Amino acid sequence: MIRSYRQRGHLIAKLDPLELLKSDYLDELHPQSFGFKKEDYQKKIYLGGVTNRDYSSIKEILAFLKKTYCGPIGYEYMHIQNPTERKWFRDRIEKSNDNLNFTKNEYLIVFFEIRITIKKRKTVAFMLFFSLLFK
């Protein structure tokens, strides 16, 4: 369930401050799709440090995951191939009360990572355009 929120939570993030667009709830994020029942919501389960806790109830986990991944900022980072970078990003998001508390150097790294991704996508689109044009 936690991994599903990390992968798909951004899809139902509240990105529209005027609430003009409705985001559909994803069934795959519901605890019942992982075998949890309503009566299980109050039981404590062992997490072993995942989401920065040793023990937590399903209700507490859901509140944390919704606040972290489905709030006004949607995080999409599970596609990052490097496990060290992915863990750094996850720790930054999950272990901090202020998720956007980056140092100046970290901010620059994230900014340039985004710029590089955008340039790669533009390059691929440009190459696709020319391949279709000169077919």
Question: Which helices and strands appear, and what pairs or packs with what?
Answer:
Blueprint: H1 2-8, E1 44-46, E2 55-57, H2 58-69, H3 83-94, H4 104-133
Distance from N terminus to C terminus (CA atoms, Å) equals 46 Å
Helix amount, in percent? 40-55%
Structural class of the helix and strand makeup? Answer: mainly alpha
How much beta, percentage-wise? under 5%
Total of DSSP H or I helical runs spanning 4+ residues: 4
- The backbone outline, from C-alpha atoms, is globular
Please give a structural write-up:
The chain has 135 residues and is mainly alpha-helical. A two-stranded antiparallel ribbon has the order 1-2. A hairpin with an 8-residue loop joins β1 and β2. α1 packs parallel to α2.
Question: Which descriptors would you attach to this protein?
Answer:
globular; mainly alpha; 135 residues; 2 strands; single chain
Short summary:
With 135 residues, the protein is mostly helical.
